[in-house]
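Request: Not sure, any thoughts?
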Amino acid sequence: MICTPKSEPSGAPCANLFDANGSLGLLIVVWCRFIQQKLEHASLTEKALIFNEILSAAYSLMMDVFGNYVIQKFFEFGTTEQKQTLAQRVRGHVLALALHMYGCRVIQKAVESIPADMQVWYW
């Protein structure tokens, strides 16, 4: 079961992925592995809940030691619209991401996951 805004699987309240300042909190480190595993089998609603939480920090997550895996999973298991939205976030940053230790992995997964005709438009 994916954590919903009301509770997590243990029944405790769910924290937001971001702290009061809008920065990624420690929670992303703890939850990113959980999120990665759940995205493979998550419902469309569950994917949308997670996607809405990460979208504003997508570029930062692409270059994060843990967050890049979550973005990769969305390129692999996200909806077509989610993949397109993430690809738009990559647009204009391909070189910087390709040269980054973790960002290059996101670029690789995007290239593998997005049809070639769409890649030309985004890159």
